[in-house]
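YM 10:42: Acetyl-coenzyme A synthetase sequence, as discussed on the call
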Amino acid sequence: MSGIESVLQENRLFPPSPATVSAATISGQAAYDALCAEAEKDYAGYWARLARENLLWQKPFTQTLDESNAPFFKWFADGELNVSYNCLERNLQNGNADKVAIIFESDGGEVNKVTYRQLYEKVCQLANGIKSLGYQKGERAIIYMPMSVEAICAMHACARLGLTHSVVFGGFSAKSLQERIVDAHATLVICADEQVRGGKNIPLKPAVEEAFAMGGCEHVRKVIVYQRTGGKVNWDANRDVWMHELAANQATDCAPTWVDAEHPLFILYTSGSTGKPKGVQHSSAGYLLHAMLTMKWTFDIQPNDVFWCTADVGWVTGHTYIAYGPLAVGATQIVFEGIPTYPHSGRFWEMIAKHKASIFYTAPTAIRSLIKASESTPASHPRNYDLSSLRLMGSVGEPINPEAWMWYYENVGGKRCPIVDTWWQTETGGHMITPLPGVHGLKPGSCTMPFPGIAAAIVDETGNDVEKGKGGFLVIKKPWPSMIRAIWGDPERFVKSYYPADFNGKYYLAGDGANRDLDGYFWIMGRIDDVLNVSGHRLGTMEIESALVANPLVAEAAVVGRPDDLTGEAVVAFVVLKQSRPNAEEGQKIAKELREWVGKEIGPIAKPKEIRFGENLPKTRSGKIMRRLLRDLAKGAEITQDISTLENPAILDQLKVAQ
Ligand code: 6R9
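YM 10:58: structure's back
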């Protein structure tokens, strides 16, 4: 495993302060060890206890883990519950009815606070509206909306009725939307007229219409439209319904539809190493259990906290740590519509001060861009804001480099606030490896230790444990409640992707390389497959390649990542055109065109940062593209590897230059 055996040099250790330890829900090493020991001794019993203590069951489960059809595991399968009930009625019953659930701040800075009772009523009215349109448990709804209270309501209205939702990030193109509508066989689409980001209105509904025009979406019966801006939209009176009109005269109560523990709460599409995006299917009970436990143990949520996760509901982080986790534990949370740099790059710090956020959860890419901004625009430096309300901070989405960690720790957290660097994935549902603030000493850049009960390990190609200090494949050795249940419609791909036979078929293969230091701390080294991580967003190289070759000008394309100071990784595409290799000027024009094309095919996040043209791609005599070579070329590294098997060495010179 070359490249991930790097010996780590990070020796700084930040132990938790005695005050943090004594105040924390999981307080001290002994408390953590006791939980791990309990899970070790009676794995199913441990999760069963937690599921009984944390979830509200309509019908209690008697069976904990069903492994009879492994790796299609089932948890708490004969129990019945409703996820939205667990997040909303729970809070009406336990004295939180008038507590603020959501502090919403719009892109332009307007603030709207919603209590648990108001949220419950809004969700119920929308759910009743959806019911009145004839929708029933088991159908799928696509949600294509901006960050808003309404998007969270849409997710909960679906959950309340037993509809499986699939949120599509508002930055995805019409084509990506169409693929998801078709793959999920959705019958309902919930969207907005437009979204507002960085002071600009960006249309959403037209993308829905474009998606329909591509065909294959005939199963969609209705489109519910949230009026965000009042911008002009086309209207199909038979199909389109305004959300506010649909909800207006509905009852403010809506009895939940009880579902099985394993009922699919949602499908979320994510990039894999091959082909089209995978529809990651999650359960109801196991998923919610882990969302709650991690809110309680990782974020150590307390009644007076103001929690802020800056993710978008279009990603898994926005599902678990905005739409479900915080509500299930009765937290007050900030939901932000906009972007960190508008109207100025002190916006995050300004909002923390304004709303007195106490827990702040963001991504390394945001931190890096704000470091850069605070250097060029000193007024946006966190030191200019009162961040004394913060007590805990988190990081997610990609490895955080120690420099960014230190800056975050010193300048945002004032050296007082522990940082929980949480490693997890769309497929895992919630945190898997993370410090607990009252337990673990922190090392900048390490996600530290497994969450209690999570059997994380590092193995070699044959599935054997590697020694501490050595690199290998990150695996989870035992099934856990919030794990992916299936790839929607493709059980074979599920087994092949996550339980491949070469790792003896028993362990969940995460797709990340990792290293464990001599203290047992985990260090994530990044993906080992053809998945890139650009600004914390997962992109499959194959997906971008297929988008490129779908362009009439392109004969062949190979996409690799190269390290980028700001975005972690950047997309570099090597392209062979059907016409001859373009000169510099022509090349620039075509590169621009291809970038736009990829933006249309997938979404702006997938646009290659750089496109290089060659008469061919470097291939072995057997015709395989030499990707490792391309990676070296992309980062401008000297070519040291053996190129004797290369069919056409002359083209290397062409591919060295960016156009
Ligand atoms: C939650 C989320 C998952 C991939 C994962 C890994 C990377 C996420 C990380 C991290 C190092 C962390 N990743 N958190 N790497 N340290 N704290 O991001 O889900 O979009 O599915 O991405 O992100 O490579 O495999 P998802």
